[in-house]
Amino acid sequence: MTEKTIAHYKILEIIGQGGMGIVYKASDTKLERLVALKFLSKELTHNPAAKERFIQEARAAAALDHPNICTVYEINETDEGQTYISMAYIEGQSLKEKIRSGIMEIEDALDIAIQIAGGLQEAHNKGIIHRDIKPGNIMITEKGQVKVTDFGLAKLEWGVDLTKTASIMGTVAYMSPEQAKGDEVDQRTDIWSLGVVLHEMLTGTLPFLGERDQSTLYAILHEDLKPLRNLRKELPETLEKVAKKALAKNHDKRYLEIREFMMELTSLKRGLKRETKGVRHAESKPSIAVLPFADMSPQKDQEYFCDGIAEELINGLSHIRDLHIVARTSAFAFKGAKLDVREIGQKLDVKTVLEGSIRKAGNRVRITAQLINVEDGYHLWSEKFDREMNDIFAIQDEISMAIVDNLKVKLLAKEKSVIEKRHTDDPEAYNLYLKGLYFGSKPSPDAFEKALEYFQKAYDQDPGFALALAGMAYIYGAFAIFTFLPPDEILPNAKAALSKALELDKDLSEAHAVSALIAFWFEWDWEAAGKHFRKALNLNPGNAFCRAYHGWYQLAMGKPDEAAAEIKRAQALDPLMPLFYAFGTGIHSSADRLDEAVDQFHKAIELNPCSGPAYFQVGRVYLKKGMLDEALSSFQKSLDLIVLAGWAELGIALIHILRGERNKAEQILHELLERKKTTNVSSYCIASIYFHLGEKDKTLEFLEKAYQERDILMPFIQVFTENIDIQSDPRFLPLAKKMRFTE
Prior knowledge:
By secondary structure, the protein is an alpha+beta fold. Among the domains are: 1-89, Phosphorylase Kinase, domain 1 (2-Layer Sandwich), CATH 3.30.200; 92-278, Transferase(Phosphotransferase), domain 1; 284-422, ABC-type transport auxiliary lipoprotein component (Rossmann fold). Helices cover 53% and strands 12% of the residues. It contains 32 helices and 17 strands. The strands form 4 sheets. Strands 1-2-3-4-6-5 form a 6-stranded antiparallel β-sheet, covered by helices on one side. A hairpin with a 4-residue loop joins strand 3 (21-28) and strand 4 (33-40). Helix 22 (544-556) packs antiparallel against helix 23 (560-573) and helix 28 (647-658) packs parallel to helix 30. The longest helix is centred in the middle third of the chain and has 21 residues, at 258-278. It is globular and about 95 Å long. The two termini are 38 Å apart.
């Protein structure tokens, strides 16, 4: 091709070539984006059948709107009459290239197969059979998202079958038996081809292959499938059965629908994860859950003290790298439940459980504690302490060291010093601090006010109590994160408390954790946030909340793999915390790992059926998948269950816009603008609705408001591109610079 520019496309380079034509990488000068231009070869331009097949490819792909199918933008002709298709340009590699690099991990192969099946399900639902599924027609983006391409041989229920000729069309090694014989085909032919691709990913070889096409066709029609586990011994038997069913020569014995095949693959993937989790601690470190102590006081008014002592033990032990300790939320989930400790241990996936009781009267405290082996229910250690309140710190030290000794944990010198560290020698200050912890665990404005009051009193009682200052800073930050109060009103107080805390104790992990949150969520000082996250987690690797928020930080920094790994670590530390699975849904969604995101959602609602954040995040997933009905239902549920003002409304408005219901989206926008006059509504969400309505000036206006208001969605402006694509307009560049995303 001699032209450098076609219509509004600037040709950059050739990226593919085949019998039907050539594919170029090009720049769309109108919309300022990269595209792939597929040209029908000049030799076929005057061939009516070839041209019609080329056009039908565009029609087939354009009829599909799914994250696992390559998007077609338009079909057109050059001035010379050469037909071309404009489609999304995919940064990444083909599955063919990936397979060449070596046999894949089982979970990775399943993930890719599930995504391919998701794209095919969308096609089959629209009456389209692909008929040429093979690794060369599967692209994988740099983020791991699969894109099915090349619908040149597609059969359309609502179109003419242009491939019915005397010759067999397709790629021989991936053809189903019925396709090889030239018989009528349905979606089961795509199931066969996907089975071949799965076989190749898992073993590095094709299930049926001869030296020539004719011998390959003979093998497909007549030879038996060799057991996969002869080629790779570690493959699960269930996976072998699934692959065998997909590759049944009689199509009536295959999966009837791609949905069934996808569900089997998803179930297999979940099973692999459960097996991995089940052996985690057997092969690694000792593990323990510290349950909340029972209140045995006469007045039953010491719940805060019982919870606080257990939480302090958890906090101290979480600094030990060679000990897996379950975080507060999961350990406290069994509070008041009359369950055997063996059952609790199994649910939390730990080998030991610490339980006990406290009786507090006046200045006397009696504490009993038992360390129990989950496997047989026997006590590894037990002790009763009857002391003055002044001895509470010594009691905690004795319990912690008994756990370490009995679990045979090797302590580093600095870990031992952390366990034995006294943050205050004042029992009254400590008692006030425990009350602050108690109310700080309950996310409501009234509870936070009480927590702040008690932390302040604890600090007033002992001005050297750095931990009380860190507690105050955390509550100030929580007020902002939950949008109970405007950030600019309270963040100066948080920073002042942190400054004093770190001046008193430069190695206080709690202070570094809160410093990281504030630098990340509200100051957008990415370097400082990273520094404080690293310091906090180095000091206290078992801080589940810090790990979860560090996952969001990694995502905002463009590191989806690290983000996903970090949220998994948080979930391992706090396995019954629903919020972390809602976080996982959002993080995997933003990393375009949509099936994993759905898995995370199901876990979240299994733990808490009323998790508003989980329904909101899965709404984003369904929106990306093009499942608008499911997305609308999820966003509506999240709205009913209360998420931050504007979030669910944004999702609902986007669905109306995609459906062409602009008036409904405008009505939602109007209602949000009215509410914003009296309540705290996300300006970022309002800006996003304006963006999708095509009102760029208003988008910029409300993005600036979001910047000024320190909207907590702003750190993800480069990640949540389904809301606002800041690359689409140069006027967004100054904002990106102010937020330190660009130089």
